[in-house]
Input
Amino acid sequence: MTADRTPTSSGFFVSTEVNVNTDNPVPTPKAPAPDVLRCAYMEIVVTDLAKSREFYVDVLDLVVTAEDENYVYLRSMEEFIHHNLVLRKGPVAAVAAFSYRVRTPEDVDKAEAYFQELGCRTERRKDGFVKGIGDSVRVEDPLGFPYEFFYEVEHVERLAWRYDLYTPGALVRLDHFNQVTPDVPRGVKYMADLGFRTTEDIQDENGTVYAAWMRRKPTVHDTAMTGGDGPRMHHVAFATHEKHNILAICDKLGALRRSDAIERGPGRHGVSNAFYLYLRDPDGHRVEIYTQDYYTGDPDNPVVTWDVHDNQRRDWWGTPVVPSWYTDASLVLDLDGNPQPLVKRTDDSEMAVTIGADGFSYTRADDDQPMPEYKLGNQL
Output
C-alpha cells in the first residue's frame, strides 16, 4: 500500500484519490460518456421459470409487475419503474443484461456512440429489449459484460405506503450489481471513464487489487468488480430498510425448510459497513440482501482501502467466508445469447492469500498470534 493512505482507528485506510493503476487500460473514448443515474434492473435467464418465480415472489416477496409463459417482471416495494429484475426462461442459467438508467433520452445516444468508439458490439432497439423499457442500447462492453442503457420506462405504482402489503423481510430497492473480472484495475479505470467513482477497495502491500466498489448514486456502490475468472456475475443485491428485515428472511427460510438457500450470513461487512445475507436461487444465481451502508455523495468523499489480510474486511465480526462465495458465479451472455468465454485471473486470488498453507489473515495488524482455526472454518 502507498504512503499517502491514512490509517484509521477502525483498521482500514483512507485517501483522497483512487490508488489503482493498470498496465492494460481500456482506451478512453473522445465521445462523452452517458450520464448514468443508477443500476436499474438485471435480466437473468432461469431454467425453471415456475421454481424461480416461487423463490423470488413467494419467498422473497418481490412484486410481480407482469408475466407470461417466458418472462416474469419483478420490482421492489419502493420502485416506480416497471421492474428491477427480469426472469427469462432459457436453457442455460446466465445473466443477459446489467441495466443502468441514464439521465436523459440523449444519454442513450451518447452510450451508443461511446461504446461504438471503443469498438464494442452494440444493438439499439427503439421499443426496448424487454417489456416496460423504451429506447435502449445494449453493448458487449470491453470486459465482456452485457450492459444496457435506457431512459424511457413505464411507470408503475410505488408501493411504499402500502403497509398492508409489507412483509417482515420486505425488499425495498435494487441496490447494486457485483461483477467478476480477472483484471480489477482495468475494470476500475474503465468504469471511472464511464463516470463511476470508487468508494472502497481491497489491496495488499504490493498493490495487487482484489476488489473495488464503484458508484453513481450516493451509496457505496452501483456495481463492484471482484477479482476472479470472468466475465461472470457474482451477485445482484436488494436492500431492506433495517437489519431485522434480513433476520426475518432467515427465519422465514428456516420455517420453510429452505435454509439450504442461505450461502453466507447474516452478518455485517467491513467493506461498506452494510448488514448482509447471501442466498442462492434455484439456478444458483447469488442474491444479496443488504442494508445500512453509508452516504458517499460529496465530491471529496474519502476512498477506503482494506488490507486483504484483514479478517474483518469481508465480515466485520470475522466470520469465515465459505469457499463457494469466492469461487462460484453466474455466466454472462453475449448479445446473441451465448455464454461469454471465461478469462483466467492471473493475479493472486483473495482466497489463496488469506487462508490455507500459503495465506494468512489477522484480527489485529500488530498481533503475532496466528488466527484461531475456528475463525477459518471449513476453509482451513
The radius of gyration is 20 Å. The longest helix spans residues 105-117.
